[in-house]
Amino acid sequence: MFDFKYFTPTKVVFGKNTEAKVAELIEEFGGTKVLIHYGGGSVVRSGLLKKVTDTLDAAGISYVTLGGAVPNPRLSLVYEGIKLCKKENVDFLLAVGGGSAIDSAKAIGYGVANEGDVWDFYDYKRKPAACLPLGVILTIAATGSEMSDSSVITKEEGLVKRGCNSDYSRAKFAIMNPELTMTLPDYQTACGCTDIMMHTMERYFTNGGNMEITDALAEGLLRTVKKNALILYKDPKNYDARAEVMWAGSLSHNGLTGCGNDGGDWMTHKMEHELGGLYDVAHGAGLAAIWGSWARYVYKNCLHRFKKFALNVMEVENTGTDEEIALRGIEAMEDFYRSIEMPTNLRELGVQPTEDELKDMAHKCAVGVGGAKGSAKVLDEAAMLEIFKASM
Amino acid sequence: MFDFKYFTPTKVVFGKNTEAKVAELIEEFGGTKVLIHYGGGSVVRSGLLKKVTDTLDAAGISYVTLGGAVPNPRLSLVYEGIKLCKKENVDFLLAVGGGSAIDSAKAIGYGVANEGDVWDFYDYKRKPAACLPLGVILTIAATGSEMSDSSVITKEEGLVKRGCNSDYSRAKFAIMNPELTMTLPDYQTACGCTDIMMHTMERYFTNGGNMEITDALAEGLLRTVKKNALILYKDPKNYDARAEVMWAGSLSHNGLTGCGNDGGDWMTHKMEHELGGLYDVAHGAGLAAIWGSWARYVYKNCLHRFKKFALNVMEVENTGTDEEIALRGIEAMEDFYRSIEMPTNLRELGVQPTEDELKDMAHKCAVGVGGAKGSAKVLDEAAMLEIFKASM
C-alpha cells in the first residue's frame, strides 16, 4: 500500500428539511454576503430557491443570485460569476443544485480568491492558492462534488472539458436532504448512480497499492448503490433508497474509497470528459457507455482486481479461470447498466462520432492527461482511440 | 434511518516517516507555541520525542513538554497541563502517543479555552464552547481519539471515569505512521484491536435506525480488523496489517460507522468505564471481558442485528433459528477474543470485584448515564448489575 492523505473537512448535515439550517451554517462559517449559484429552473419551480432566500432574509444575510449552471458547466458563466462576486463583495458561495452548480461555484471561488485567468487552473498551468468558502445544498446525488476537491469546467472555445483538484475548494458544509432528489427524472437518477459507482471503481481498478479496508469499504459501497439503484428504478420516491444513494455519492468521491492506493485509474472519466465536451451528454451515461469497452481492453493487465470486483461486488459465480470470472463481472456490470436503462456503448448513448471525431477525442484526451495515463493499464492515444472505437 | 451530522475535519497524513511533517502541519494550522503532551517513557526511549523536538527546533517553533499521561488519564495531570499552557502562552497542543495522551490533551485544551473547572464538562454540568487547536502523532491504534470528538478522563477522587464529546476537540491533523505502533507489547496491540472493533460494534447493535451503506462499511471494517488482528498476533511487525488496523481505528470512531442510526448502544463502554475507573485495567481488555455477558443479556431484544453480525462479520453458518445464528455469532466473537488472548470475563481479566464493588460499579454507571440507557436494550441499574455478575 502507499502512503496517503485524507482530508474531508465538509460538515455534512443529512436528512429531512435540513435546508432550513442554511442560514445558521453560513453564519457558522463566517459568510456575510452570499452568491447563491444554481442551475436551471428546477430549484426555482420546486420552491427550494425561495425557501433558501426566505431563510437568509429572515437571518439578515444579504445575497445575490446567479442561475444558469448547465451540465458540463461553462467557463463563460464562471467569468460572469467572478465579476458579480467582485462587484458585490461576496464572501461566501452557496451552490444549490448538483455537480454543475457546485463545480461552477468552485471555479467562481478560485477566480475571486486568486489573481489572473481562472482557466489556468483547469488548463494545468497554475495551482490555486485559495478559494472563497463554499456551502452546498445538494439536489442531485451524482458527482460527489459536495465533499470532493474536484471541479470540472468546459471551455466553450474548442469544447475543452478539464478538471481542477484542490483541497481549497472543499465545501465548508453540505446540506443533504434526500427528499430534494425525488423530483429528478429517472434517467438522471440512473446517471447519478452510475457516476457514483464509477468514482469508486476508478479508484478500485489499480495496479498500484491497495488496502484491505479500503477495498472492503469500496465493495460495500458499490453493492449498496447497485441494490438501491435498482430499487429507485422501480420506486423513485423511496426515501431510504434515495438516502443510501445520496450518502454513497459523497463517500464515493471524498477520498475514502481510494486510501492507500496509487490514486486510481480515471481513464474512463478522462475519455468521457472528451465525449461530454463534444456532445454534452449526461456524464453518468457517458461513463456507462465507455466503461465496458475500457474494461475489456484493460482487464488482463489488472486481473486480480477485476476478479475481486466480480466476486465481491457483482457476486458472480466463483468457477472457471480468473479471466472467465473477471469477464463475467464485466458482463454483470453491463447487465446492471442495462437494467437501469444506462447505455453500454455510444450508439445506445445516442451519439455517432465520425472517425475524425473519434481521433480528435483520443488526441485531446491524450494531450489532457499529458500523453498517456491509467493504472489498470497505461493508455496512450492509440489505445484511447481503440477503446473509443470499441465503444461504438 | 435517522437524520445525521458527519464532521471529520482532521487532516490525516498516513504512512512511513510522516512524523517528519509535524512542524509544517503545526504551522499550517497556526501554532506558534506548542505543548507537546505524551505518556510514559516509550516515546522518549524510542527516540520519537527527540525527533519531534528536533523538527520543531529546526523550524523555529517553540514548545514546552509535559509527559505522564497514563492509561485512564488523570484529572490532576490535566490541571497541571492547563496551568502550564496558561503560564507559557501555549496556542497549540501536540499529543504524541495513544488515546491517553490525546484525551488528556483535549481536556487541557478545553481547560485553557474555557473559564471555570474543566471537570464540569466531564461531569455533564456544562458544554465546552472552544478548545485549543490540537495535532496528534499517533503511536497506538485503539481509541480512535485522533479523529473522534471524544475524550475520557478519570477523576482520582472516587475514581470517576467520564467522557466529554465535542467537535471543538477534533484534531486539526493526525500523523499516522504504522511503524510507530510496532514496538507496542502484543497485549496492547490486541487491546487496541478490541477497542477498535467495539467502537463500531457499539454503533452497530441498535434498535433505532440503520443505513445499509453504514452497515456495509461497518461490517467491512470489522472483518478487516478481525483478520489483521490475527495476523498481528503471529507477526507483530507486519507493516500492512499495522496499517490496516491503524486506519480502521480512526474510521471506527470518527462517526462513519454510525451514520443514520440512533447514536449507538455504548453500554459495554459505559460499564467498562466503571471497571477502568476502579481497577485501572486496559480499556480494550475490559471491553472484551464484559461484551459477551452484555451480548447474551440483550441479543433477543436486537435479534436482527445480532443475526446480521453473525453472518456478515463472524461469517458463521446460516442454518437454524435466528436465535441460534445470533448466539453462534456471539460465541465466534468470544472465540476470536480468546484467539488473540483477550479475556472474555472478569476472572480472565484478572479482577475479582466483591458483591459490594459490583453494586457500586452498577450504581455509578447508572448515575453516569442518567438512570438507564442503551439501544440494543435499555439497561437500568439492576440490569447492569446482572451483566457485571454474569461476567464474573
What kind of assembly state do the chains in view correspond to?
homodimer
Q: Count the E strands of chain A.
A: 8
Shape of chain A: globular
**Major beta sheet, strand line-up of chain A:** 1-8-5-4-2-3
Low-confidence stretches of chain A: none
Number of domains of chain A: 2
Named CATH architecture of the largest domain in chain A:
Up-down Bundle
Largest interface, with Cβ-Cβ < 8 Å?
A: A-B, 37 and 37 residues
Portion of residues in beta strands of chain A equals 5-15%
Number of helices of chain A: 16
Order of helices and strands of chain A: EHEHHEHEHHEEEEHHHHHHHHHH
- CATH fold-level name of the largest domain in chain A: Dehydroquinate synthase-like, alpha domain
What structural class should be given to the helix and strand makeup of chain A? alpha/beta
Mean pLDDT of chain A: 96
CATH class of the largest domain in chain A: Mainly Alpha
Task: Determine the N-to-C terminus distance of chain A.
Answer: 37 Å
Describe the structure.
The structure is a homodimer of 392-residue chains. Chain A has 392 residues and is α/β, with parallel strands linked by helices. Chain A folds into two domains: 11-180, Rossmann fold, CATH 3.40.50; 186-390, Dehydroquinate synthase-like, alpha domain (Up-down Bundle). Helix content of chain A is 51%, strand content 12%. Chain A contains 16 helices and eight strands. Chain A has helices at residues 22-28, 42-45, 48-59, 75-88, 99-113, 119-122, 186-204, 212-234, 239-253, 267-279, 283-298, 303-312, 322-339, 346-349, 355-368, 381-390, and strands at 4-14, 33-38, 62-66, 92-97, 134-138, 150-155, 160-165, 173-176. In chain A, the strands form two sheets. Chain A has a six-stranded parallel beta sheet with strand order 1-8-5-4-2-3, with helices on both faces. In chain A, strand 6 (150-155) and strand 7 (160-165) form a beta hairpin. Chain A is globular, with a radius of gyration of 20 Å. The mean pLDDT of chain A is 96. Chain A binds chain B through residues 1-9, 11-16, 18, 211-213, 216-217, 219-221, 223-224, 227-228, 240, 243-244, 247-248, 251, 256, 259-260, and chain B through 1-9, 11-16, 18, 211-213, 216-217, 219-221, 223-224, 227-228, 240, 243-244, 247-248, 251, 256, 259-260. Strand 1 of chain A pairs antiparallel with strand 1 (4-14) of chain B.
